[in-house]
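User: Show me sequence and structure for the first protein, then do the same for the second.

Assistant: Starting with the first protein.
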Amino acid sequence: MGIRYIDGKRFSRSLLAGIRRLISNQDYLNKINVFPVPDNDTGTNMGFTLSSIEKSVEENTDSYINRFADSVAELLINNARGNSGVILAQFFTGFADGVKENQQLTVKEFSRALLIAKSYAYEALLEPKEGTILTVMTDWIYTIQHASDTIQDFKIILDQGLKNALQSLEKTTSQLSVLSKAKVVDAGAQGFINILEGIQDFIHTGEIQDVDQIEIPQVQVLDSIPFNEKYRYCTECLISGKNLDRNLLKSQLAELGDSIVVAGSASKVKVHIHTDSPKKIMKICQQSGVVSDEKADDMLRQQFDAHGAHQDIAIVVDSGCDLPEELLKKYNIHVVPVRLNFGSDHYVDKITISSTDFWKELDTNPHHPQTSQPTPGDFLRQYQLLSSHYKKAISIHIPDKLSGTYQSALNAAKQIESFPISVVDSKNASIGIGLIAIRVAEEVERGKTHSELLEQVEQDIQNTRVFLGLTTLEYVVRGGRVPASKKKIADLLHLNPILSFTDNGIQSVGRTYGKKNILQKFKRYVEKSIDWDQLCRIGIAHANCESIATRWGEDFGERIGKENVFVSEVGPALGVHSGPGGMVIACQNLKGEVHD
């Protein structure tokens, strides 16, 4: 029995089958991902993009295909990730425009809408490349277009389209040299084929399989592929506004990177670019409209995760962990960034705003900054990327009492049943989280089991204490962490509270007196709190007072060995509350080890 038309309900059910087929194959897509860069995230990005509409597609009851297509296109633009994900979102945006006058579609009308979708997909790229998802899309659409002159049955026409699309997929290996060397097809094109295969199965069987029912293809992990990309960060954002000019944006971004995709409509645009200057990208985008959903993935780190030598357990922190880049890299610690804003200007912590830039902005901007925790989606995407290259993860975060970050991580971890993730409340902050993460990383390298590591991290949390010394309470009051009444009392009595992180949040644990040499008094207080007979580590994080932190690091290094002292800078996540001139000292007792 043939299918002469499709409406919103038929389209949604067939699309759901396609989405589930792709999601089931995302790990396979990651492993064959070598273009445009071998960062092994194509499957995760396409899966993340399509999973954002899965629930809406599954629950759709609208029989009007134009209304359903509009809602799908908007959701995809909002949630698109990665080169192929943004191209897919733009393809569906073009399809929605192509069916805006239709409540249902004949084969001929479907064909015309696909041609519009294809043109949208190509227009989104600054430099479209053949041998990619674009090529397979084109060959599939042209097959349907030519056949639609004589065939009015969707079953037949989609069968013919898939057959030719599979042939087109095989040819991608010879169309791009990087695919030829790796002996793989294009991962984005394979993902598009997966969608078509899921649709075909549904049309012929009438059944929509769950993800865990779909057979997953096996692939040998590719040998290390040289990372020749000249840019480090895969950067994306969403722009909302009026009369957004996508072509103008592409030309403005052209000199700052490659793999540029600008998708969307006149009111909402998703930008994707590989660049070394995420901050400059965001500045340009902010000139066009309101920027949100910023992210900048480190492709060098992704390349190491995919092809470098590492243990099976990944360590994740949020950017409230103040460790310098060299230590994060040395100990293979992954960071999910906190977000912050000065009024309508939004930033990604330590990616699109550095600590140096933050202090300048704090001094001159009339708006006091606000922080917002990473979303569950931010964590989910990071966990999905790691799941392709690690067996388990330990995720260590800002205290639950102070931020929703811990809950975001927990909610995301629950969504990946096949990848065990232990989410840990650090009961610490700043360099204190850093010391805990370093300690766990060392035990990972020593080959400890996951359960042993969890015991270790709980012990390290108990043995790590953070002290925060401030030269003023102004910023911590502005941030709502300390009542204004306490500041008035402290100013009146010339008190300098010393703060720490407890089970009940930030609490005053001591004080010094007088407004001269505040930081030196703070240091002496902390030194009296340390059991110097126990071997310990000390972390120092400064809020725009590097010379003092360096000198303190040298002082502590003479007492416990310079290898046991770590110096860093307070990042924006904590700097919002500390203000400039503050200092963090974390002490970690290494239980059972005695200092000589």
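Switching to the second protein now.
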Amino acid sequence: MKRTLLLLIPVALIILSCNQNKKTDDMNKDNPFFTEYSTQHKVPPFEDIKIEHYLPAFKEAITRHDAEIQAIINNEATPTFENTILEFDYSGQMLEDVASVFFNILSADSNEELQEIAREVTPLISEHQNNIMLNTDLFNKVEEVYKNRNNEGLDANQIRVVEKYYEDFIRSGAGLDEESKERMRELNNEMSMLTLEFGDNLLAETSNGYKLIIENEENLKGLPQSMIDAAAELAENLEMPGKWVFQPSMGTTLAFLQSAENRDMREQLYRGYFMRANNDNDKDNKKLIKRIVEIRAEKAELLGFQNHAEYVIDVNMAENPENVYTFLNKLWHAALPVAKSELAEMQAIANREGADFELESWDWFYYAEKLRKEKYDLDESEIKPYLKLENVRDGMFWVAEQLYGIKFKKLNDIPVYHPEVEVFEVTEANGTLIGLLYLDYFARDSKRGGAWCTGFREGSYDREGNRIEPLVSIVTNYPKGTGDAPTLLSWDETTTLFHEFGHGLHGLFTDGLYKRTAGVVPRDYVELPSQIMENFAGEPEVLRHFAVHYETGEPMPDKLIEKINNSGHFNQGFATVEYLAASLLDLNWHTINTTYSVEDVIAFEKNAMNEIGLIDEILPRYRSTYFQHIFSGGYSAGYYVYIWAAVLDADAFNAFKESGDIFNKDLAAKFRKHCLAEVGDSPAMNQYIKFRGQEPEEEPLLKRRGLM
């Protein structure tokens, strides 16, 4: 029958089709994603990857993954760990490869063409995921292995992989009736586009939206020269010579608020910052937020949960939203009085200087710097000359070398996606390769805001048991030094780099046979590896090693190190309150159920903050319209995790301090093994107890923040 139909097709069409297929084959032959990379360490050949390669690669990767899934389904043998779970674990590698490159570059070096591809490919990926996780035949096989998991002679790790995959299918809706599955598909597809649009809007509002344009040099008083030079350079690039331009990115805004003497200028830039995606234009995020929370509430209800927060936290260490609220409120009641006390001290300074106004939110950072100088005789400008970017980087490498004995070697011949990216080879002390580390430091209009750790390849094992080394990437948004001036970091930027490096070590050290569990932890554990590294940055022994003056080469004086450590409690009321306010706002958005309709996003936010008694002088760290963590960044109902993990990291670092050696090799080996390398092998608290010998205590965190 097929042969007969083929003979009826006009010859011209056959020739045309063959020519088209030949062109497609030729294009695919040159597409780096279609074959194994031939580069050193088999890294992505960024220089060979072109815009036109992405979409064909995504489509081919989805086709291949579909075939792999269908092969599992078509296998007529009794479902087992090997022929079902393990095959599922191995499947989809090409899709992982393409997506890891595309979406990382979309975040770090985006453009309109990439954003257009993202809009086209996102629904394809969403539908593909639906087709897998809502596939009844596939789920039936997984379920059969799950039911027989204790009778197959599987080891503990294999049983955990089976249980986690079964849980994934259930939480995706595989156990629903057909009508509910179809509704889940619709909601997933719509959500994928909404979250993408949220991020695109925020990037546009930050890079191409409001700009503070200063024409009078008097209005620059107080700003460091490096910041003035960068603003003049930006103005030149925007064809506004003789002016100074400031964009409302977090790094620029906070640095400006800390030092600018002109109060009106501070207010204008801060308003530009906290009004992002809230300007009733085509980049406004309010309607998106309303729909996102509606969809999340409906999906949670379909899956048998009261709300999205309950769904998310059900698999976290916290277990349920009530536990999170209790935890956050306990800290809130400790932190808010401290923040009010800080405000009173700052108002007193302003009054002594003759101010005839009550402090507002745009005044906090400026007067906090004055308070730091008054109480601790410490000025940010006094610290920065000792925090040259390259020295900070080498300092964090040195800490890792002291703890784990690992080595870092810069590679100059590895393909990178942007000329500013550095790559380091990471090895054990004996030279065994652990993986590669990419570092992308500098702010640019094509990069989304903030700092994050990601990867172009996860560490894993192939079918023959050979280790595949991870490719880890750290991305930040530091203002680049202008001209011949070096890039000098603030103390916050320094600890941020140490923080992301902690995530990087987690990625580098992860070791496990199965992708589903290797290194995979609950969301409220994931910040432990990063936050524990922040503790090392301020240790005198560490600062003496890397903090040297960029001009004189002199090490940071002990007196200045002492000031930094004495100021550890500085502004912690504010820092804790603004963070907790955002965490509680997140929870409020995601404890909405399907019976509740949000009419006004800003009114909802204001009511949430009024309920907890947030003072007007402090805004939540992220207001709703630019709260990328929860509306497009994977932290929905989970922004609390940073401070939940802070309890863990303070307790863990306390173990090193109590030992009398912050580089205690035995403790470091236990932390690497139980809390980083094998952390996915059992529940996160079990792994932590293997390291610490006990559950964490809150007291070290409260002491560290001066909240006791």
